[in-house]
Amino acid sequence: MARVIHVEVVQRLESRASVDQIKIAVNKMIDDKLKPSAGTFIKRFDDAFLVEHIEAVLISEGNEISCKNGIFSEFQFVYHIYRLNDEGRQRELLESEEDGEELSASSHWTLPCTDFHGLWESLVFESSLKDDLLSFVETTLLFSDKGVDSNFISWNRVVLLHGPPGTGKTSLCKALAQKLSIRMADRYNHCELVEINTHSLFSKWFSESGKLVMKMFSKIHEILETESSLVCVLIDEVESLAHARQSAVKGLEPSDAIRVVNAVLTQIDHIKSYPNVLILTTSNITAGIDLAFVDRADIKQYIGYPSVAAVYEIFKSCVKELQRTNIIHSKDNLVTLKLLELSSFQPSESTNTSLKLYDISKLSEGFSGRTLRKLPFLAHAYFVQKPSVSLTEFLNALEKAVGKFKQDCEELKRT
User: pTM for this one?
Assistant: First the structure.
């Protein structure tokens, strides 16, 4: 059985080329390449047709694609050709009946969009988390299509990602919604991400909060009624709902607060009955999540700080991006961590710079993903300060930036 390789092609908004024309041109480009690697973007093209009609091509993640004489007979290529929506975030405002004030109840994105382009590929997790999430969605659709009776087998279409701040939970939710809009375009002709602003739901007029919840979810219901639309609902920091309910039970908050939280949970229970919805939630405080909500989640995935291996891959992707933009003018390639392991981490002409980065990665263990993505910028700002730099110089600057960051954190703790 041939292994499926996904080829995602971003077509320019102004392009009028047909899907077949693009497939033929991209397929020829892939055949002409000796050994394309999965998980990498191709943004520069030699072919005039591709330059005119294509913004980027991504070969899906997986093991390296091997070939014989440029012929990929053992692989089945699945093409996803799409345009990126550039409208950005749209806010859903609900008007208070008490004072006419407009509250920002949610944010909406029509997917796929430019805001999240490349986000899925930039996220690095040591486990198979991303593949597991895609498989989860595929199974929910399969069970719905086959009419599996939920009285016998239960699934709620609810994902809970929990762990410390800055580990990529919210980004992963948004990236998953984007990836689904691309991979499932043949099934859904419209995809929307709705991020609920839980903090705005608790109106200063507590008696009105329940009405605001109903108004917000009624708009989600309208989208779901169209079976050709896929809706991903994101509830960030879901523990805020649980906290409000616990405080209300203890008498610390007005009784209306518990009615609001119950209304949200009831609405989640209602919309999960639609086959075209996925509910994505995150939490920074695992102990603060209401057990009633935890029980609703099909996947409860802890996301901690990156391991040394993940740190190395994150830094390596940052270096590659700076090489692409010629800020690092050296085109020396950093080897994979697997190759370093095979070489027993012994220094050589081909591994010296990679070993240097690996040492920096060990120094950076325990940093959040958010911090790791900032460090290359801080390295340049503090210790490079020129338009172009060699890879060796940049790695030296990165090492200094890691040391400075640690020192700054220690000083912050002492104040």
Answer: 0.88
